[in-house]
Amino acid sequence: MTDDGRLLRGRRSREAILGQAVSLASVEGLDGLSLSRLATALGISKSGFFAHWRDKEQLQLDAVDWAVRQWTERIISPALRAPRGVRRLFALHEARLRFYTDRVLPGGCFFLAVQTEFDDRPGPVRERVSQARRDWLTLVQRLAAEAVACGELRPDVDPAQLAYEIEALGELAVAHSRLFREPQAITYSRRAVLQRLRALCPDPALLPED
């Protein structure tokens, strides 16, 4: 096998491990990750892990980065193809809800699982999780500010407040749909954000009625 072939195989192995790690962590948290559990799930030997990770903390950090990549590819990138303004902001929320209804992860949301796990535990993993969620909220706030700037939300709208409300409704959707087995939680979340945006939009016809 050529050096390029070995590098490609190594990258694919690493990506498969990280994908499985994010899936498991969405259910059991990052502390629930173990080399033996991942090895069993993937059908490979534990020795294969040591080519990529020497300790559990680095595996956890890389899992957070992989989850960010997944979130970007499945939620952010599709939403950013919507027209700039209020439609893009709503598309972001819809893409997030679609991520949940498509059951991309067995636990629903990696970030909801791990942010409560590490919110009071200082260290590199907490900082990485915190930065990922801060970047996400900054994006939601920026899209809200863009909608104000282009006249598709009222000029008195506070983008930070609106981003907070949208995020809260997104988190509540996945939490209730999982904890209470309440599938209508997704519908409630979509409707609540849609109604809020329509009420703040000078031209509600830009958004669906329901």
Account of the 3D structure:
This protein has 210 residues and is mainly alpha-helical. The chain contains eight helices and no strands. It has helices spanning 3-28, 35-42, 56-79, 86-101, 110-118, 124-149, 159-179, 184-200. Helix 6 (124-149) crosses helix 7 (159-179) and helix 7 packs antiparallel against helix 8 (184-200). The longest helix has 26 residues, at 3-28. The model has no long low-confidence stretch (mean pLDDT 90).
Topology (elements, then pairings):
Blueprint: H1 3-28, H2 35-42, H3 56-79, H4 86-101, H5 110-118, H6 124-149, H7 159-179, H8 184-200
Q: How many angstroms does the end-to-end distance come to?
A: 56 Å
* Topology pattern, helix = H, strand = E: HHHHHHHH
Uncertain segments are none
Number of helices: 8
Gyration radius, rounded: 19 Å
Strand content bin:
under 5%
Largest sheet: none
Which class do the helix and strand fractions yield?
A: mainly alpha
Number of strands: 0
Shape: elongated
**Mean pLDDT metric:** 90
Determine the fraction of residues in helical runs and give it as a percent range: over 70%
